[in-house]
What we know:
- The protein has helices at residues 48-55, 78-84, 99-104, 112-121, 125-129, 148-162, 178-192, 204-208; strands spanning 9-16, 25-32, 37-41, 63-68, 71-72, 85-88, 166-170, 196-200, 212-217, 220-225.
- The chain is α/β, with parallel strands linked by helices.
- 38% of the residues are buried.
- The model has no long low-confidence stretch (mean pLDDT 89).
- The protein binds adenosine-5'-triphosphate and magnesium ion.
- It is found in: Cell membrane; Early endosome membrane; Endoplasmic reticulum membrane; Endosome membrane.
Amino acid sequence: DLLFTEGRIDFKNVCFSYTPGKEILSDVSFSVMPGQTVALVGPSGSGKSTIIRLLFRFYDIRSGCILIDGQDISKVKQNSLRSYIGVVPQDTVLFNDNIRENIRYGRISASDQEVEEAAVAADIHDRILSLPDGYDSEVGERGLKLSGGEKQRVAIARTILKNPRIILLDEATSALDSQTERNIQLSLAKVCANHTTLVVAHRLSTIISSDQILVLHDGRIAEQGRHEEL
Length: 230
Ligand code: ATP
Ligand code: MG
């Protein structure tokens, strides 16, 4: 029902509460320009993941508006919106299916080879091959347990396959060893180049490499600027 083209994000005076009377976001305004990477930082509970959820339209806002490429997302079909945006959530939940299909979900028409290329780019291919059933390994609630970082890399592979114009990434808060962390950074740098990226950042390296930083405090933008300026 519409055409997204550039990958620009605008929040305009957004207010939001999950339950009446307890405001989570207060008058939040910011813009992410096409191709930029913006890091969202702030204390636990300040509303970072909420911003990601609102962009994907898990909830509707109370006042203000959220625009993508100048179009109010509340007036856009959820399917069109979600086909344009890739999300890597804070706690990735994989489907009760095998790893191959979990990655292919990013683009159902992808070939097995494309699935594996995405896994290589997300630095999870070798780990998958080390499993007894490889890409046929069942994951999710009933299947094998992957670590938080490994699951997030499966989600990154899915996003690489999807190749959306806008990427929303909610970095895992769980402690990762430094090698895993570096690998995730590298796979993200690959997928994020040429895309508009809004990343909830816990790692200093992510923050330093971003074009702009938004500091959230109690649901308000407290500071905004580049790393050198803050
Ligand atoms: P963290 O760094 O710990 O991930 P965050 O900045 O991502 O924190 P949010 O998840 O956006 O924080 O939550 C912001 C506030 O909204 C918190 O006070 C949280 O308790 C509340 N909240 C989050 N999800 C819900 C929900 N589904 N229903 C009610 N309140 C919620
Ligand atoms: Mg969060």
